[in-house]
Design goal:
single chain; about 260 residues; about 15% helix
């Protein structure tokens, strides 16, 4: 899916039942959909991630010179690898070029929400400036690179992809994206509260930071403050549901980005 202006440690950080709040606890139903990782070279990134037991799905070249590749999961969630193969020709590609110039790694966490008007209203009240965009039937709501919520975007109008077993069966037993770790400021916290998302427990993350877990209608976010001064908040890890108790341990799969597994 195209995105808009888009240490080994024990997994004790993931507490059982943290997603039990469900849609009834939210005024707006939010679903963790996918996380986008920006890389310099798709083939190299696939080679680096292959030891963790993932299967990959080819993406496509977009008119703005963005090229993607996917790791699809059985529940319809995904990881998306994104790169730029030519001069950026629109704001989306320009932002990816800026991210790559800084460093490869997390770019966005995508949240599915069918009521973007309510999200926009809540963002305004939280002191954020939402930016609306469309691509075909897809609608997006994102935030400026300098925003407390720059690492996240909301989307509607896309259908959950149901890929064949050959693309969603992974050697590591991965079945779905359960949690995303991202940097965010106080105004992102205010937005989540305004959307009815409840803050749960504090989480000690593998890089030493402490974050706050927010349970969505499906999935969860862990929001942490940046460890160093930064001009742009970014995602820095995910937790993946796995049916295989021998799936790999939590690890830094590329500088500044972690993948962990929950059984």
């Amino acid at each position: 899916m195209n995105s808009p202006l888009l240490v080994v440690a024990a997994l004790a950080v993931v507490a059982p039942g943290v997603w039990a709040q469900g849609p009834a606890a939210s005024q707006v139903v939010l679903r963790l959909d996918h996380a986008v990782i920006v890389v310099r070279d798709l083939k190299g990134a696939q080679r680096d991630l292959a030891p963790w037991g993932f299967r990959f799905k080819a993406g496509r070249l977009h008119p703005d010179h963005l090229l993607n590749r996917h790791i699809k999961f059985r529940d319809g969630t995904a990881l998306e690898l994104m790169t730029l193969v030519g001069p950026p020709t629109d704001p989306t590609a320009t932002e990816y070029a800026r991210l790559l110039a800084s460093r490869p790694g997390g770019a966005y966490v995508a949240i599915l929400c069918e009521d973007l008007d309510r999200v926009a209203h809540a963002a305004d009240r939280a002191g954020l400036v939402p930016q609306r965009s469309t691509r075909g039937t897809w609608q997006f709501l994102s935030f400026a690179p300098s925003s407390d919520a720059a690492a996240i975007f909301f989307g509607s109008g896309w259908q959950l992809a149901r890929d064949p077993d050959s693309l969603v069966t992974h050697e590591n037993g991965a079945t779905g994206l359960r949690e995303a770790w991202l940097e965010g400021g106080p105004r992102l916290d205010s937005l989540l509260r305004a959307l009815g998302v409840a803050a749960a427990d504090s989480v000690r993350l593998p890089d030493g930071r402490e974050g706050r877990r927010w349970g969505l209608g499906d999935g969860a976010l862990v929001v942490a403050r940046p460890s160093v001064a930064t001009s742009r908040m970014r995602p820095f890890g995910v937790v993946i549901e796995s049916s295989n108790r021998r799936s790999p341990p939590t690890a830094q799969v590329m500088p500044g980005f972690w993948i962990g597994f929950q059984h």
